[in-house]
Design brief:
- The chain is mainly β.
- The chain is 3% helix and 46% strand.
- It contains four helices and 39 strands.
- Strands 1, 26, 28, 29, 31, 36, 37 and 38 form an eight-stranded antiparallel beta sheet that branches.
- The radius of gyration is 23 Å and the shape is globular.
Length: 570
């Protein structure tokens, strides 16, 4: 991941998603501030590129996990694949999913689900928090490791014998500077960390970075000695390559392989590879680099995928290797609101070099299954699992816990309850522009064309507070759609923020429940409402939602769709 933030230095736990929540009455007792309640939330994808029938037994969709699921890392233990993704300023952190075929991914919670594991106070949601996790399994001690960067604290790892039963508290690695750490457990019992950092000495040009190597003491969970700079600048150094990062170290046959992202996470993003006879080098770069990029393709593609890179490799048990990597699906130019997503392609080995995609070839939406994929018949399709394609789901919040698809911004307080009263939120709202936990729960926008709908059954607020739907890309990149008060009377408002907040539509509304609906079609969103006992009404159509694109907003996330409250300007 390209990050200009290279050297930047509770109440919620797993039980919030799996244990009982307090009753509405208990949660609200003794509170002051505003209250709102939601009876349901529905989501439906309508992407044209997915609206083609295909054979689930012989083909799979790209992306394999749609929406904001960047920087994928994968490992295999037995017949099960484990995948993690970056989560930045969201809580819980580092979503983990399992699969038997690399296609039908079953969400399996989060690696970092306790405040002690994930301090996020004061960090920006779009470029703070957790960068580029790597998941690995050490067969010698039968332990899973997840190593990553919390840009507010540094680099660390957590461990687990069984990911379904939780992970350890962070083990900090103070000598590992920079970002994007990776682990290799070698056949001889040794282990290594590689990571991105600044170059030693004075950089020769802006954007010149390096890859460092540490030996890792498995028994002591610490680095040994000092680092060795194994790559300086990147590939084709005479061309001044920028942002060598996202390293992964592998061993296959007689060679060690170092695979890295290069060129930044925008359209120039790519994946490159080196090999050596030992981890310390010397490292030979592949003459055919990059082994994955879309920067050399024109803009006339029907269903373009851009920004491809930050890949990880895994062998599937049949001898077939695969790469998971991030990419983006723009709706116009390089505008995309869905963030960086997880894609999958088979790897071809040529003269002991891995190639993910031949130069000049485009990433396709529909792909032929290979290897283990042809042997496994999952009980649920990716669409049924709600991970890619034009899927739909409805959440009625009638359980004592939130579904694991819901997350928070930064470390949350105990501001919500679920159960017979639906989703009830209460407390003192804050502005989306401040680095605090907003009173809202969020899901990912996973389609360029989509419909999201909710019913707000209760709302007690003030002239400065809006309760309803919050579309969040960043502190200064959001859209708020909900109910507030003007001159003591209820009003529905639509506020768009692109650096500065502007109310672009409003309408008087009766007291009582109201349904809210957002439809998105690429750049243009429309907003509808239905007062109790009435027909649907239009609040605004053709609203420019490009302020929710990562390209305009900055940072590294995709749009979050929230239910809750925030303060706005009167």
């Amino acid at each position: 991941m390209t990050k200009n933030y290279l050297l930047l230095g509770l109440m919620l736990c797993l039980g919030w998603h799996h244990a009982e929540a307090k009753s509405t009455q208990e949660t609200q007792q003794g509170r002051t501030g505003a209250t709102c309640a939601f009876s349901y939330f529905t989501y439906q994808g309508h992407d044209q590129r997915f609206a083609v029938p295909y054979d689930h037994n012989r083909e799979y969709l790209n992306p394999v996990r749609s929406g904001y699921y960047p920087d994928p890392s994968v490992c295999r233990v037995g017949k099960t694949f484990y995948m993690v993704n970056s989560s930045f300023g969201s809580y819980p952190g580092v979503p983990i999913a399992t699969s038997q075929d690399l296609v039908s991914w079953q969400p399996a919670g989060y690696v970092l689900d306790r405040p002690s594991q994930l301090p996020l106070a004061g960090q920006p949601v779009a470029h703070g928090g957790i960068y580029a996790p790597t998941i690995r399994y050490n067969k010698r001690n039968k332990t899973f490791y997840m190593i990553t960067t919390n840009v507010g604290r540094g680099n660390f790892l957590v461990k687990s014998k069984d990911p379904s039963k939780g992970w350890s508290d962070p083990i900090w690695l103070p000598k590992v500077q920079g970002i994007d750490p990776d682990l290799l457990f070698d056949d001889d019992g040794k282990a290594y960390i590689v990571h991105n950092a600044s170059v030693t000495g004075k950089p020769a040009y802006e954007g010149q970075t390096a890859i460092r190597l540490f030996e890792f003491d498995v028994k002591g969970d610490s680095t040994r000695g000092d680092f060795k700079e194994i790559v300086r600048g990147g590939t084709h150094v005479e061309e001044k390559p920028i942002w060598i990062e996202g390293p992964h170290l592998y061993k296959r046959g007689h060679y060690y392989y170092l695979m890295c992202a290069e060129g930044g996470t925008a359209e120039h993003h790519s994946e490159v590879v080196f090999r050596a006879k030992k981890p310390q080098g010397p490292w030979e770069e592949y003459s055919g680099n990059p082994i994955l990029t879309q920067r050399d393709l024109g803009e006339e593609l029907l269903d373009p995928v851009t920004c491809t890179g930050h890949a990880d490799l895994v062998e599937d048990g049949t001898g077939q290797w695969w790469a998971v990597f991030l990419g983006c699906r723009p709706y116009e130019g390089n505008l995309y609101n869905t963030g960086r997503e997880t894609f999958l392609l088979p790897v071809t080995w040529k003269n002991d070099w891995p190639v993910i995609l031949e130069h000049g070839k485009a990433v396709q939406t529909f792909n032929a299954k290979k290897g283990v994929q042809l042997k496994v018949r999952p009980s649920q399709t990716p669409e049924q699992l709600g991970i890619t394609g034009n899927f739909s789901y409805t959440d009625r919040f009638d359980s004592t816990a939130l579904s694991q698809r819901w997350t928070f911004v930064r470390n949350p307080s105990a501001f919500y309850a679920t159960g017979t009263g639906g989703l009830v939120i209460s407390g003192l709202p804050t502005s989306l522009s401040v680095k605090e936990n907003p009173l809202a729960v969020f899901v990912h926008q996973q389609n360029a064309s989509f419909t999201a709908e909710t019913e707000m059954t209760q709302q007690s607020t003030s002239a400065k507070t809006v309760a309803g739907m919050l579309l969040l890309q960043g502190a200064n990149a959001n859209i708020v759609f909900g109910k507030t008060l003007r001159h003591g009377k209820p009003v529905l408002v639509l506020q768009r923020t692109e650096k500065e907040p502007v109310v672009i539509a409003s309408a008087p509304i009766e007291t009582g429940s109201v349904k809210l609906r957002v439809t998105g079609d690429g750049r243009w969103y429309s907003f509808y409402y239905q007062p109790q006992g009435q027909d649907w009404k239009v609040l605004a159509t053709g609203v420019d939602a490009s302020n929710l694109s990562t390209t305009k907003a900055g940072g590294f996330i995709g749009t979050l769709i929230g239910l809750g409250m925030c303060t706005i300007s009167e």
